[in-house]
């Protein structure tokens, strides 16, 4: 079982079970919350990329970014 663990204070620790359909992110451009595919996370980790520093963009913002790069 995978879970997220955080320490609230010196006496309280919280553990929350993690299921593949409960992984979400917020787009850094528009703030839209959406579900992240666990395979994308596994790919980032397996390649040794910066997992905590990774941003996941929603489809609308990534499409706009790709379109704007194509025209420049």
Task: Describe, in plain words, how this protein is organized in 3D.
With 72 residues, the protein is of the alpha+beta class. It has a domain of 49 residues. Helices cover 31% and strands 22% of the residues. The chain is built from 2 helices and 4 strands, in the order E-E-E-E-H-H. It has a two-stranded antiparallel ribbon with strand order 1-2. A two-stranded antiparallel sheet has the order 3-4. It starts with a strand and ends with a helix.
Task: Tell me briefly what this model is.
The protein is of the alpha+beta class.
Give the radius of gyration.
16 Å
Q: Report the structural category.
A: alpha+beta
Strand order of the largest sheet: 1-2
Largest sheet: 2 strands, antiparallel
Quickly count the helices.
Answer: 2
The arrangement of helices and strands along the chain is EEEEHH
| Average pLDDT taken over every residue | 88
Shape: elongated
Q: Considering DSSP H and I runs of 4 or more, what fraction of the residues is helical?
A: 25-40%
Distance between the termini: 47 Å
What's the count of strands? 4
Strand content: 15-25%
Query: What are the segments in which pLDDT stays under 50 over at least 5 consecutive residues?
Result: none
